[in-house]
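Narrative summary of target 7.
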Amino acid sequence: MDKSNERRGVRRLHFNWPVWFAEDFKGVLSQGQMVDVSRGGLAFTCSAERGHPNPGQWITIRFSVPRFGPDDAFGMANFIRSGRICQVDTTKTFLKRIAVQFADPLPFDPQEQAYSSVQDTASV
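Modeled conformation, tokenized:
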């Protein structure tokens, strides 16, 4: 996607990590690749061949985000969030880029936390 078309006002953590999604978790889950994440939503790519979510549709997503703790401790925080599809773009003929707004935001800002950790390390 062309960065000049970026309409989101919130800075995001660019993070390539698997995500699993479905209309509900009672059925078959589809896998995607996270592109970026913020407290209020995420974007991921998925195969366009098997169909994909449409704008306005609600889906449930399972994903992980890096979490920094005291004394430079590092781990992954796991989440399951429902959200509304805000945008669907074709990135390549076989990939779709899906943007999702969470119904319930994350308890921390992944981008801000990662930036703070880098700043803390740089000042040492």
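The helical segments are 110-122.
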